[in-house]
């Protein structure tokens, strides 16, 4: 398969934040939700958990795709978990769970791990790794926690917080790549592409004013 074929990136995630991260970096992905049951993976190590889930998501979507003669398709699976106080936090079970987490996390720190698994559909070559970022939470009040949980935002995200939404006001600082906390590290994606003998610039697109036209660069 010649490298001159146009590249297609399929994001195996329903996360709007991951898609927006790619789009902001000049990449327009196709999105296919994996439907993976995240409860099937049980491990005490947050790094192992997020990477295994990312791998399962990418593989699940891969089985639904067929190689094409006119393009080279890549599948990217991602998953994020928060390591906090010796525990692993994915998405909260419900509002009460999110509230309990925030009552523990406020004024303290955790490590957000995001697993990335990139698979080239032709030949099945794979590159994968975990990006990790330390997150320092603000010492927020009970009222702030209740109001935040009531918005529903923390129920849909790993660790029960965001930095690119309402929860950003409750994160004092981070140590590492902000993209990791959002769920997709662009510097790590660049390195994974290099392992597959590709460049991040191969995925860039050119968007006309008003987002009317999207066409490959070069």
TrEMBL record:
Signal peptide: none
Lineage: superkingdom: Bacteria
GO molecular function annotation: nucleoside triphosphate diphosphatase activity
Any one of the GO BP annotations: nucleotide metabolic process
Catalytic activity reported: a 2'-deoxyribonucleoside 5'-triphosphate + H2O = a 2'-deoxyribonucleoside 5'-phosphate + diphosphate + H(+); a ribonucleoside 5'-triphosphate + H2O = a ribonucleoside 5'-phosphate + diphosphate + H(+)
Alphabetized PANTHER family for the sequence: BIFUNCTIONAL DTTP/UTP PYROPHOSPHATASE/METHYLTRANSFERASE PROTEIN-RELATED, BIFUNCTIONAL DTTP_UTP PYROPHOSPHATASE_METHYLTRANSFERASE PROTEIN-RELATED
Function: Nucleoside triphosphate pyrophosphatase. May have a dual role in cell division arrest and in preventing the incorporation of modified nucleotides into cellular nucleic acids.
Similarity comment: Belongs to the Maf family.
Record protein name field: Nucleoside triphosphate pyrophosphatase
Phylogenetic placement of the source organism: Bacteria, Bacillati, Actinomycetota, Actinomycetes, Micromonosporales
